[in-house]
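User: Here's a structure from my thesis project, written as structure tokens. My advisor, Dr. K., wants to see whether a designed sequence matches the one we expressed. Can you design one independently, without my sequence as a hint?
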């Protein structure tokens, strides 16, 4: 029988719920109209071999005129997004979560004049739409107590005040929350591993306070739908989120293939089940020895063993980098940072930032422009990240060590304020630099008396008249005593011209609050998800000095 669209419920009086339902039907259409049983099969079974969501619950999600429980909706959306070939299944889930929250607000608004207990009784059939795994478990009386709490008539014929109504509403939300916890514990009672995971999530989660606000009028579905990784129990994401998720996914694939519970893993690896559960639910990095033991007991092939350890190394590096980032001072003056430099630093060394590379000691870091592959250093970042301030710091450090500099600031920049300082040979403040003018400014350079060009907004000067002089500087600067330090917008710096492309060959630079992965190309290193995309913090960035390591630094100001 050919796949058919399903009948849509009448939701004319609930526009937000109708929009959610329409989008869900469209998502199923994109996925090729899979059947309810196909969706159920793709969602899969839990550790006790029960369907996480049965086919009738799938149909109810599409056809009932009610708000679907988020846990059930989440797994269905993820399956349809993956089957439909969406590039970002997580993004699709988050989109639906936003729509679902709007439906919650809509439901609360429409039900605000009705006793909450009415909604509870109306939503009874949503409490148990899984397979009948908890049928014989003891029932809890939360619902009745909630009804009593909210239906108690006022004494002496008085009308309840708005404050009393708000208190009743709050009490109902609290009782619904308690009901969710009890329902989940009952459903997972005979799966001690899963129960331990769930209770651990409950104990640590800050999300329950927010969840109480989202549970106003309808009791959530049986928590079997939520699983042990429910988004309703979210905690702050790890800075190594992508690396840890990949590592955990690979571990879980091997665990499920062998049908190991966490208790089995304890007996197989000698590592406590509590430790495995904590690593899994808290998005923590497992101990390396635990992975080695797991690999040995699971009999993994060499390539799988190497992959696991490689993922572990990557996740640890991201976590360590984030620790160094968090340990940075929020700000530091130039004079204080200058005092932290190595007294033996060469004359053409430039101060780029302060950080903690291998310990707790704050140290000044920067490039030695007299060595390396190319006499250049790049500063890249989005607007507002502090590129110009970083250039001023670098220029001041060169002047302080007796190195002469040439300034280039085609747009308004604090770099221009250094034009009258001793040691500044020239300052170009137009959107072009003449060939002869720059050549003359650099004519006095030598390895003994170097001159460094410090350039802001480099993307404006990519076609300047002096581009051949700049290209020659990058090719022969070590011999002639010249070097180049430039800064530009990470989105606008483009290696269209030979002299700009030559800067990338230096394989070193400073990324200030990078937002895109390709920004790392300018400093010769790949940047992962734990480094890019964070909020822009002026003067905070990642320094690469050509050794393959990213160092978190604060730029002096």
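Assistant: Designed independently from the structure alone:
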């Amino acid at each position: 029988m050919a796949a058919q669209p399903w009948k849509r419920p009448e939701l004319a009086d609930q526009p937000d719920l109708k929009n959610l339902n329409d989008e869900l039907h469209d998502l199923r259409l994109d996925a090729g109209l899979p059947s309810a049983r196909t969706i159920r099969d793709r969602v899969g079974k839990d550790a006790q071999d029960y369907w996480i969501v049965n086919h009738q619950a799938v149909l109810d999600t599409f056809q009932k005129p009610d708000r679907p429980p988020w846990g059930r909706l989440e797994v269905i959306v993820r399956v349809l997004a993956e089957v439909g070939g969406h590039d970002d299944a997580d993004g699709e889930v988050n989109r639906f979560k936003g729509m679902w929250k709007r439906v919650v607000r809509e439901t609360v608004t429409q039900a605000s004049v009705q006793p909450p207990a009415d909604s509870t009784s109306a939503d009874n059939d949503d409490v148990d739409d899984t397979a009948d795994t908890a049928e014989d478990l003891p029932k809890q009386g939360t619902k009745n107590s909630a009804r009593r709490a909210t239906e108690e008539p006022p004494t002496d014929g008085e009308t309840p005040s708005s404050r009393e109504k708000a208190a009743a509403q709050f009490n109902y939300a609290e009782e619904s929350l308690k009901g969710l916890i009890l329902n989940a514990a009952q459903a997972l009672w005979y799966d001690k591993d899963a129960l331990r995971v769930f209770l651990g999530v409950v104990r640590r989660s800050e999300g329950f306070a927010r969840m109480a606000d989202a549970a106003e009028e309808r009791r959530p579905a049986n928590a079997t739908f939520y699983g042990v990784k429910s988004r309703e129990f979210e905690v702050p994401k790890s800075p190594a989120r992508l690396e840890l998720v990949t590592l955990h996914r690979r571990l879980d694939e091997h665990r499920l293939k062998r049908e190991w519970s966490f208790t089995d893993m304890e007996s197989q690896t000698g590592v406590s089940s509590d430790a495995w559960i904590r690593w899994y639910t808290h998005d923590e990095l497992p101990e390396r020895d635990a992975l080695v033991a797991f690999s040995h007991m699971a009999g993994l092939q060499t390539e799988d063993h190497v992959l696991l350890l490689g993922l572990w190394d990557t996740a640890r590096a991201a976590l360590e980098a984030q620790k160094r980032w968090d340990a940075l001072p929020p700000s530091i003056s130039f004079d204080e940072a200058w005092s932290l430099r190595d007294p033996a630093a060469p004359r053409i060394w430039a101060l780029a930032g302060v950080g903690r590379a291998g310990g707790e000691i704050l140290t000044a870091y920067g490039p030695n422009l007299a060595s390396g592959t190319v006499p250049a250093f790049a500063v890249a970042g989005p607007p507002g990240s502090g590129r110009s301030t970083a250039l001023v710091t670098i220029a001041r450090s060169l002047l302080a060590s007796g190195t002469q500099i040439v300034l280039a600031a085609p747009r308004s920049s604090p770099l221009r304020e250094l034009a009258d300082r001793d040691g500044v040979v020239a300052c170009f403040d137009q959107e072009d630099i003449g060939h002869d003018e720059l050549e003359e400014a650099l004519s006095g350079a030598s390895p003994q008396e170097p001159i460094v060009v410090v350039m802001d907004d480099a993307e404006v000067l990519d076609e300047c008249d002096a581009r051949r002089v700049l290209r020659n500087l990058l090719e022969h600067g070590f011999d002639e005593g010249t070097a180049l330090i430039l800064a530009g917008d990470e989105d606008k710096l483009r290696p269209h011209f030979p002299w700009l492309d030559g800067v990338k060959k230096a394989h070193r630079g400073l990324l200030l609050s990078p937002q895109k992965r390709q920004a790392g190309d300018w400093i010769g290193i790949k940047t992962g998800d734990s480094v890019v995309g964070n909020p822009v913090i002026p003067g905070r960035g990642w320094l690469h000095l050509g050794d393959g390591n990213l160092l978190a630094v604060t730029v002096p100001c």
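When you compare it with your expressed construct, this may help: The chain has three domains: 15-233, 241-326, 334-554.
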